[in-house]
Backbone:
């Protein structure tokens, strides 16, 4: 499966000058929502991710996604794994479990994002879940921006990676685009202004 081609075909790999959620700048941005607007593609990707997780023999009771980015990817992955599905969301900028969702002590949770950059939001979701007694046993994302080492890759974690070394990250592909610190960005130096695409059109 050629994940990059799937992103390109869906016009989900944008070229320009972007401010990422990690605050770094990049000339590429992945808009996973565009890939996931086709439920058949979403299922295809989720099935491939679920195959990796099963092959690693990791037992998952529940998939938890940090909203909004991870909502669709998490749901389709839970469907492929036959797992329960919940999501965390920000309340006054703090990640929390709401809407009557609960977890119990010993429940094995996988945190799923659409894209893992440094893993910051995923770690906030983990903290919210584990403060309620459940255990995060793995992370997953469709695309990996290359800061964190995914299962099956020989590339080590970069210093920016916030995910713990002792828990696996499952992802379908590394999108190893060049990223720049805001004060060291050649695009900024050429006079262009970075935009934050995120949920905007
Ligand atoms: Zn820049």
Residues:
């Amino acid at each position: 499966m050629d994940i990059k081609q799937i992103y390109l075909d869906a016009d989900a790999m944008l070229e320009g000058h972007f401010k990422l959620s990690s605050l770094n700048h990049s000339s590429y941005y992945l808009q996973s929502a565009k890939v996931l607007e086709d439920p058949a593609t979403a299922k295809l990707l989720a099935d491939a991710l679920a195959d990796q997780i099963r092959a690693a023999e990791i037992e998952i009771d529940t998939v938890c996604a940090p909203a909004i980015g991870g909502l669709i990817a998490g749901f389709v992955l839970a469907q492929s794994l036959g797992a329960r599905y919940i999501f965390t969301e920000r309340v006054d900028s703090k990640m929390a479990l709401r809407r009557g969702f609960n977890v119990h002590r010993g429940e094995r949770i996988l945190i799923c994002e659409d894209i893992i950059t440094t893993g910051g939001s995923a770690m906030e979701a983990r903290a919210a879940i584990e403060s309620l007694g459940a255990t995060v046993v793995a992370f997953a994302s469709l695309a990996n921006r290359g800061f964190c080492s995914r299962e099956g890759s020989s590339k080590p974690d970069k210093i920016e990676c916030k995910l713990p070394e002792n828990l696996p990250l499952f992802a379908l592909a590394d999108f190893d685009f060049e990223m720049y610190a805001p004060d060291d960005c050649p695009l900024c130096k050429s006079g262009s202004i970075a935009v934050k695409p995120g949920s905007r059109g």
Notes: The pocket of zinc ion is lined by residues 17, 25, 180, 185, 187-188, 194 (CB under 6 Å). The first helix runs from residue 3 to 9. The chain has a mean pLDDT of 94. The chain has six helices and nine strands.
